[in-house]
Amino acid sequence: MSQSHQREARHCVSCGIRVSGKNAATFDCPVCGTEVSRCAKCRKQSNLYECPDCEFRGP
Known about the structure:
Blueprint: H1 3-6, E1 25-28, E2 35-38, H2 40-44, E3 49-50, E4 57-58
Antiparallel strand pairs: 1-2, 3-4
């Protein structure tokens, strides 16, 4: 199996849709380092997100 098939699909922590496109973002939580993904729409609207591990909230 190729490496791309082994990776888990990323979903926006704000709205739950699959994250794709150049304006989406994946970054480490500033508190615990867990990977957080956000879609372009939630980023543009500054929707709040919550880290799934430590419950840190950010815009």
